[in-house]
Amino acid sequence: MATSLQIRSRVLPLHLSPQARPTTVPAVFRAAARIVAANGLWQGDYVPDPFDREMDVPHALRPMSIVAALKCAVSGDPHTWSPLADDAIAVLALRLNDGPEYGDIFSLEEHVDAWGDVEGRTRESAVAVLEAAADANEVAA
Fold it and tell me: What pTM was estimated for this model as a whole?
């Protein structure tokens, strides 16, 4: 038998729950890994159908690129800028391959997106890289 609190409460998805918002770079990586695992990896810019011409699914529930997942993990929106998301993007960009050619945020985002857009890249490999980045960043801290 359920209590009245259990009947009235509901679980909010990560993108709607302010208590679940990460506050550290490793936590951003772990939250982004959960988002990609749940929604899927989108190979392209941010999310499919960004102008809502064909879908009515909220952007935060669509498959998304790694950069979009990092932004969504922090702000709840894959298109919203935040300093913490930018820090996570920078850390991840420097971990992937040889790192970006330039150090501005647009080059860092492009480098991470290019890694995620490689043909044959899977959701599982993206999740594994995000979790490994979280582990490495926790050890370094």
Answer: 0.81
